[in-house]
Design goal:
InterPro entries: P-loop_NTPase, RecA_ATP-bd, XRCC2. Helix 8 runs parallel beside helix 11. The protein is of the alpha/beta class. It has a domain of 222 residues: P-loop containing nucleotide triphosphate hydrolases (Rossmann fold, 3-Layer(aba) Sandwich), CATH 3.40.50. The chain starts with a helix and ends with a strand. It contains 13 helices and twelve strands. Strands 1, 4, 5, 6, 7, 8, 9, 10, 11 and 12 form a ten-stranded mixed β-sheet that branches. The protein is globular.
């Protein structure tokens, strides 16, 4: 880094006028289902919790496609945000072919419908879509596909130190993109607890050394949170982070029975009960305080599968814990992506 770049880094990133113009133009926006119940604003941190194979990464991919797609292109309405996505893969299992498949399906659906609002269709209408042979004959805009894929920035990290290094360089990467006229909309982390056990083991091994503080699990997470806060102070981002569960509580088969009753023996402390997550929390308090919105994903308790055409697909339920909503959405994952079924 040269002297001029070092001085520009030390100086303020923007003037008060630039800051006000940036903040005032940032408005709340809605992502497509199943993250459509609560409007999100720059600075929000959404934690998506669920067991393994609970479609958490599929939700991130669908949200990413909604972000990288433009609002309109050549007279066709796609309903996207036209912004960049920063994807930090900590599980090291991300499937870029799945992203490409879902993006192409969105482009084909928008061309076929003419308005891009494919997710507003009811399940019965989704079933009556064109056959796969007819869809393959539909031509989508290759230039639009390439520009969308360029808005998806992927980083793979194998441990917490690599994650910290990536977070420290994200500011410079975002500045480079903004200099080219692109704006970053969403930072995705999949999954935030991927290195929990290795960092915990490192903390125990550090008892025999004089480097315990630097290897402490709590210290590492606090540093990660600090770096994320620095990014949110300078850039208009929404953070979406997935997290696996360790021990999830068992609920009745009917999710409607989980509503708090006045005769419940816990009714005297409903507020504190509502704040308790339905799973055992393992992330340090610094991360828990950093999160502004919480979602939990489960395999549907009412039914395990839905018969959709010739496919037998698993059904999942999505519940907002923070803010707490009474509605529980149920969805399936098919070749096109996530489809709300109730």
């Amino acid at each position: 880094m040269g002297d001029d770049e070092a001085r520009s880094w030390i100086r303020g990133d923007e003037t008060a006028k630039q800051m006000l113009s940036r903040v005032l133009k940032d408005r709340a926006f809605l992502l497509i289902p199943p993250l459509h119940r609560v409007p999100l604003r720059a600075g929000n941190v959404v934690e998506i919790t669920g067991a393994s194979t609970s479609a958490k990464t599929q939700i991130l991919i669908q949200a990413a496609i909604s972000c990288i797609l433009p609002k309109t292109w050549n007279g066709i309405h796609y309903g996207g945000l036209g912004k960049l996505v920063l994807f930090l893969d900590l599980d090291c299992r991300f499937d870029v072919l799945r992203l490409s498949q879902m993006l192409k399906h969105r482009l084909l659906q928008a061309n076929w419908l003419g308005n891009g609002a494919w997710w507003q269709l009811e399940e019965s209408n989704v079933k009556s879509c064109k056959s796969a042979e007819e869809k393959t004959k539909t031509v989508f805009d290759e230039e639009l596909y390439a520009s969308c894929m360029k808005r998806f920035l992927y980083v793979r990290c194998y441990d917490s130190l690599e994650l910290l290094s990536s977070l420290k360089t994200l500011h410079y990467r975002i500045q480079q993109q903004e200099a080219c006229g692109s704006q970053v909309g969403v930072l995705m982390i999949d999954s935030i607890g991927a290195f929990h056990w290795t960092d915990r083991l490192s903390s125990s091994l550090a008892l025999e050394t004089h480097n315990r503080k630097s290897l402490s699990l709590t210290n590492v997470v606090e540093t990660i949170v600090q770096e994320l806060k620095k990014l949110l102070l300078v850039h208009s981002l929404v953070v979406l982070a997935t997290k696996g569960t360790i021990y999830e509580e068992k609920y009745p088969a009917n999710e409607n029975n989980r509503k708090v009753s006045s005769n419940d023996h816990f009714s005297g402390n409903v507020a504190s009960k509502a704040q308790q997550p339905p799973f055992r929390e393992f992330m340090p308090s610094s991360w828990q305080a950093f999160v502004t919105h919480k979602i939990i994903i489960r395999k549907s308790a009412d039914y395990q599968s839905l018969q959709t055409g010739q496919q037998n697909l698993l059904a999942y339920s999505l519940e907002w814990l923070q803010p707490q909503l009474s509605r529980i959405d149920r969805f399936i994952v098919d070749d096109s992506g996530i489809v709300i079924v109730s």
